[in-house]
């Protein structure tokens, strides 16, 4: 009897720990992580792929790409807001226009500007909108599809944005990461549309409506700033938004719908890659030989 009493006393605190304090309780933490992953699988994957994802799901590696790129963009913004002379924080002035990172048509021979413009933002509302959206979508996508896929789609949108702007709006400058953000939204939108029947109907409707509302509002405001307002300073192109979205709806769609499949065996992947490369070389030739922008 004495031994049994000792055993009961020993196990009692463990039972209390499971019900009350989950510190040092890996099982409870594991259940919370599993619940967290189930939520993301419902948002990102059709039903037949969720079980496979949950069997393999873990947070290693964490969503490192989207976090690092967001920190880099925030760091550059703070640099120009604090260490460069500015009239105000809300809308940055000459500092960003003179930056070696900004895409400007007269400096397009400096090829790095076609990518580096994503680090420079024109004001608090500009960078906060991009950071909130890319973290909200990017972290969720990266937990399911990992950093390589999300990084490829994001950078494809950034490059597509600057190249398209150099062709269709050749006299305008370009700042901000909207091309990459819209690529993520474009890929996610196509995923939601294609897999609509295989997900909860209300969830699918909600996702599509939210994306349409955000895109419509943002693009409309960008067009308003480009053509209607007469603010002093260099005009900023809105074409990167549209081109980034198109990149997302093609390359992003293929990457985000090929979970647990080999991309190289998917003909859609090669169609998108060949189309993207063809558009890339056309844009390069246009900028070298045909662009009306000043050299």
Shape: globular
Distance between the termini: 94 Å
Query: What top-tier CATH class fits best?
Result: Mainly Alpha
Name of the CATH superfamily: Rhomboid-like
Report the radius of gyration as a whole number of Å.
24 Å
The name CATH uses for the topology is Rhomboid-like fold
Order of helices and strands: HHHHHHHHHHH
Instruction: Give me the number of helical elements.
Output: 11
How would you sum up this structure, described in words?
It is a single chain. By secondary structure, this protein is an all-alpha fold. It has a single domain (63-290), classed as Rhomboid-like fold (Up-down Bundle). The chain is 70% helix and 0% strand. It has eleven helices and no strands. It has helices spanning 2-19, 26-44, 47-56, 64-82, 94-97, 113-116, 124-168, 178-194, 201-228, 239-256, 267-290. Helix 2 (26-44) runs parallel beside helix 7 (124-168), helix 4 (64-82) crosses helix 7 (124-168) and helix 10 packs antiparallel against helix 11 (267-290). The longest helix has 45 residues, at 124-168. The radius of gyration is 24 Å and the shape is globular. The termini are far apart. The model is unreliable at 1-21 (pLDDT under 50).
């Amino acid at each position: 009897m004495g031994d049994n009493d000792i055993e009961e006393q020993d196990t009692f605190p463990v039972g209390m720990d499971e019900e009350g304090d989950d510190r040092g309780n890996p099982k409870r933490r594991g259940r919370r992580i599993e619940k967290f992953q189930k939520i993301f699988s419902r948002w990102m994957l059709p039903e037949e792929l969720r079980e496979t994802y949950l069997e393999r799901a873990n947070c290693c590696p964490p969503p490192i790409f989207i976090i690092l790129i967001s920190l880099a963009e925030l760091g550059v913004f703070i640099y120009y807001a604090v260490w460069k002379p500015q009239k105000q924080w809300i809308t940055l002035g000459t500092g960003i226009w003179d930056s070696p990172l900004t895409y400007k048509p007269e400096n397009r021979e400096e090829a790095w500007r076609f990518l580096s413009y994503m680090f420079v933002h024109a004001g608090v509302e500009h960078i906060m909108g991009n950071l909130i959206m890319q973290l909200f979508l990017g972290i969720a996508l990266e937990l399911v599809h990992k950093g390589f896929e999300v990084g490829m789609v994001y950078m494809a949108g950034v490059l597509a944005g600057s190249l398209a702007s150099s062709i269709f709006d050749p006299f305008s400058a370009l700042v901000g990461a909207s091309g990459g953000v819209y690529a993520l939204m474009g890929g996610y939108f196509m995923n939601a549309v294609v897999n609509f029947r295989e997900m909860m109907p209300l969830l699918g409707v909600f996702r599509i409506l939210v994306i349409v509302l955000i895109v419509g509002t943002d693009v409309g405001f960008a067009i308003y700033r480009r053509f209607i307002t007469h603010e002093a300073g260099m005009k900023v192109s809105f074409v990167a938004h549209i081109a980034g979205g198109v990149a997302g709806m093609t390359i992003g769609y293929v990457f985000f719908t090929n979970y647990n499949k080999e991309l190289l065996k998917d003909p859609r992947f090669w169609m998108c890659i060949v189309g993207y490369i063809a558009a890339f070389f056309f844009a390069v030739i246009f900028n070298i030989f045909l662009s009306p922008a000043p050299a």
